[in-house]
Write a structure and sequence with these properties.
Largest sheet: 6 strands, mixed
CATH superfamily: HUPs
Number of strands: 6
Number of domains: 1
Radius of gyration: 19 Å
Distance between the termini: 65 Å
Strand content: 5-15%
Structural class: alpha/beta
Shape: globular
Helix content: 40-55%
CATH topology: Rossmann fold
Length: 260
């Protein structure tokens, strides 16, 4: 029997995930001495594994920082925030729940557009507010490299510029909270392997999950998988390219050198 079958934190997959998390934190200077970080815990595999990885990093890091998990409860009966809270209690994690009646707000505003857009805006606002109340200067989110790659393709093909989810995004004047993404270098496949070993709780899904499955982000995530069949090392190559921006060879005039 493998040693990590009783302690998934000792598994090769989780060790690799922690290694990539530490590399991202160091490379992009995400965490500093004395930081108090709010970690968005949606109840999905990415956010659960992010908390596990950050707590593992916290135990070994040469600096001191604090972590506070935060769950946004949209008020849908399909979502079980209590299961997330129970799991956090078992792990000894500090945890907060922010509740908002999304269904009631959608009905009141007679919102006909994609509800995910409004919900995302309200969720982020609530998390920023909680971060300020908890004296947290940074908000850690669980997006991994597959999310970053898909976001880049979305931005490219929708004419929104060469942009994606930044690993360490400066605070806006209004929010005063930096957004960090410690899984910036981690592929989703690795997170899935860790999830299967940890036996994470099922918190339920949003009632509008089918809209997400038909949206742009899901399409471009699927496109990544299709391209990977032709280019097996696609993700590592994209990571290398996104970390090597050659502005002289793009079409933005402000970066071009017309005279030496």
């Amino acid at each position: 029997m493998a040693k990590y079958e009783t302690d998934p934190r000792k598994s090769p997959a989780f060790r690799e995930l922690c290694k990539l998390t530490g590399q991202a934190v160091t490379r992009y200077r995400m965490i500093e001495e004395g930081d108090r970080i709010l970690v968005g815990l949606s109840g999905g595999k990415d956010s659960f594994m992010l908390l596990h990885a950050l707590h593992a990093l916290k135990r070994k890091a040469p600096i001191y920082f604090e972590l506070v998990a935060a769950t946004f409860d949209p008020g849908f009966p399909e979502f079980h925030a209590d299961r997330i809270a129970d799991y956090c209690r078992e792990q000894g994690w500090e945890h907060r729940i922010v509740r908002l009646d999304i269904a009631g707000i959608l009905a009141e505003k007679q919102y006909d557009d994609t509800p995910c857009v409004l919900c995302s805006r309200l969720r982020r606002g609530k998390l920023y507010g909680l971060a300020a109340g908890e004296n947290c200067g940074k908000l850690a989110l669980g997006q991994h490299f597959d999310d970053i790659a898909a976001s880049f393709l979305m931005s490219l093909f929708r004419g929104q510029g060469l942009s994606t989810m930044g690993p360490n995004v400066a605070a806006k004047a209004k929010e005063q909270v930096r957004v960090i993404r410690p899984f910036a270098l981690a592929p989703e496949s690795l997170i899935i392997r860790c999830r299967d070993e940890f036996g994470l709780p099922v918190a339920g899904k949003c009632r509008y999950e089918e809209l997400l499955e038909d949206g742009d982000r899901a399409y471009f995530r699927g496109l990544l998988d299709d391209l990977s069949e032709r280019i097996p090392n696609l993700r590592s190559q994209m990571l290398r390219s996104l970390a090597n921006v050659q502005t002289d060879y793009l079409l933005d005039p402000k970066f071009l050198k017309y005279r030496e």
